[in-house]
Amino acid sequence: MKQYHRDGHEIWVDASVAMLEDAHGNYTGGVTINHNITDRKRVLEDLHHANEEIELFNLNLRGAFEREQIASRTDALTGVFNRRHFFELIEYEFAASQRYGRPLSLVMFDIDFFKQINDLYGHQAGDEILRKAAQVVSGQLRETDILSRYGGDEFAILLPNIGATEALQVLKRVHKKIRPLRVDFHDKKIGITISAGIATLHPNMESVTQLIHLADTALYSAKQNGRNRTVVSNHK
């Protein structure tokens, strides 16, 4: 307990009380013995404050580590996953789909005439279009779907547990949202479209490279056939 010393300053004491009895067992008083533990109390308080500071430091350190982890797997411009993390995820999903016989589809898409947009309006306009496209596409995906910026204006969508038919329906929704979109940049309204290719995992595939190649080839076919469309790969 806290008490006041006879000179007026506060001290902490550890008090013990012994009761005094008469010959008949009646309490007649008591003796209190106080041990001054002020120094020990201060040491304990200092230790408590030190532990609080350590906890706060560890909390800040964990927060910084989590932010670094997010930054290491996220594209700084669009906020979606970056290319490196995409390859980590596709390797995992590819192996899991093969092991458990689950469908897996991959979509590769890019912005139509993106170079011309950059040349005409500038790279800041191009950046805004990439951000907006990523945002719109993300809004059409499930929580389990994985959207990544593959490079430049090319993106990849990994669709676990989805075959080609369902993947095509996803892209139809995406096209429907993007076609009427107008991106405001200064006093301009810039319209955009995308071209996309879809490839689906087949039992005889041996690596993710094959799946990516088929989706990329389907994307190239979409661009060659007029853009603003999706092509589904029919190769195995």
Distance between the termini: 81 Å
Mean pLDDT across all residues, rounded?
88
CATH superfamily of the largest domain, by name, is Reverse transcriptase/Diguanylate cyclase domain
Question: Which architecture of the largest domain would the CATH scheme give at its second level?
Answer: 2-Layer Sandwich
Q: What does this protein look like?
A:
With 236 residues, this protein is of the alpha+beta class. The protein contains six helices and ten strands. It has helices at residues 38-73, 83-100, 114-121, 123-138, 164-178, 208-224, and strands at 2-4, 10-21, 27-36, 104-111, 146-151, 154-160, 182-185, 188-191, 194-200, 230-232. Strand 5 (146-151) and strand 6 (154-160) form a beta hairpin. Helix 3 packs across helix 4. The N and C termini lie far apart (81 Å).
How would you briefly describe this protein structure?
This protein is an alpha+beta fold and 236 residues long. It has helices at residues 38-73, 83-100, 114-121, 123-138, 164-178, 208-224; strands at residues 2-4, 10-21, 27-36, 104-111, 146-151, 154-160, 182-185, 188-191, 194-200, 230-232.
Give the secondary structure arrangement, pairings included.
Layout: E1 2-4, E2 10-21, E3 27-36, H1 38-73, H2 83-100, E4 104-111, H3 114-121, H4 123-138, E5 146-151, E6 154-160, H5 164-178, E7 182-185, E8 188-191, E9 194-200, H6 208-224, E10 230-232
Parallel strand pairs: 9-10
Antiparallel strand pairs: 1-2, 2-3, 4-6, 4-9, 5-6, 7-8
